[in-house]
Amino acid sequence: IAIIAIIAVVVIGPTELPRALATAGKWMAKARGVMGNFRTGLDAMVREAELQEMEKKWASENDRIMKEHPAVPDDSIVSENQMEPLDGPPAEVSKPIENPPEPPPAGDPKP
Predict the structure, then answer these.
(1) In Å, what is the CA distance from 37 to each residue of 14, 25, 45?
(2) Is the confidence at residue 37, as pLDDT, over 80?
(3) Model's pTM, two decimal places?
């Protein structure tokens, strides 16, 4: 790098060197910007290709699972109204006690 700097000072001259370095810096910035855009586009294409590949794998796996476990036809689904009654009479449900009787007062015993 030192050799290039010495040659640049001799060829361009010390008065024009700052302007030449600024111009070179602008070109490098533009080149980096173009390379960044290229890299971003390339990464997006790779991600899209990977996504398509994964979607194909998921579709094939889904097909395999659906073949192993076929869907139940709607005719075989039993609704609550179609269910058979249980053997025996229905169980009785006792009503909850709304107001339980009050205990007798403790101070007045009854004989």
Answers:
(1) 35, 18, 12
(2) yes
(3) 0.42
SS (H, E, C) 48-106: HHHHHHHHHHHHHHHHHHHHHCCCCCHHHCCCHHHCCCCCCCCCCCCCCCCCCCCCCCC
The structure tokens 């395999």 sit at 64
Task: Rank 73-77, 87-91, 98-102 by mean pLDDT and report only the highest.
Answer: 98-102
Total residue count of the chain as it appears in this document: 111
Query: What does the pLDDT read at residue 5?
Result: 83
Contact 110, 104 (CB under 8 A): yes
- Token pair for residue 33? 């910007």
